[in-house]
């Protein structure tokens, strides 16, 4: 990893910029069979794969989401555009939250807004949430750059270039990890408080 001339940081940022959300207009307006769903997701989320052989959403995963009440059951083995939107939300959440936590926030989401029986539908919610993506990405990238610069200032007294490079990298990982940890704690608190509010009603 070549940190000294910031090439590695530029590579990381290029990788982050490639991550993009699925435009709801790209989701077919016709119902899809399971194989079509997994193929669509694999194609549109491939930039977020860590390894090329990774499977983003498998049939087993999707069936388990239905069994765990994260996803409404398909109609005659076909999945609607709303199913697809829910699966995209699940995909992003499953890397940081437990199935139980996702269930806590999805239950009211599906009860109130799934099926077109409310004044606002899932597609509109999806668009509203993701419209700030570009602004969020810019802010996140600036924060990553700040953390990177700060990590390069650590362990100044280490003589060995190899040791310093490793320890700088470790510092950078710790700074990013602590940020993720704090935000995860905040998300879990929000979910717990929302669940308590629902119980009171």
UniProtKB/TrEMBL annotation:
InterPro entries reported for this sequence: DUF1836
Name under which the protein is recorded: DUF1836 domain-containing protein
Organism: Anaerocolumna xylanovorans DSM 12503
